[in-house]
Amino acid sequence: MHTKPCLSLSDIKRVAAAAEAQALANQWPVTIAIVDDGGHLLWLQRLDGAAPASAHIAPAKAHTAAVGRRESRIYEEMINQGRVSFLSAPILHGMLEGGVPIIVEGHCVGAIGVSGVKSNEDVQIARAGLAALG
Predict the structure, then answer these.
(1) Is 67 helix (H, G, I), strand (E, B) or coil?
(2) First to last CA, the chain
């Protein structure tokens, strides 16, 4: 039987707090989502002023990053380069920059998705959350 690391509630809270701190430091109204390795929602936090749509987009970005085991921007780039068939990929709904996988000991244990500001700023917030895991 194989074993692998997984996110604990304390890990999730650390990631969320670091992502929130990054967003607040820049006064960016966003939604932060954290999912497990199967893309199941573990945390959703919509900061004051975040657009209602961001509460749907952030979990979708996180889900895509987790089940794809890569940043969600990779899919956006493929589509923008003409590989539009990815628009019909099953279960991938957040093919936009802003989803970052959480890799621990070579295993994808989940992902962070952020939505609400420019894509590169969403990623900055997600990576700040990721950095909290060390």
Answers:
(1) helix
(2) 27
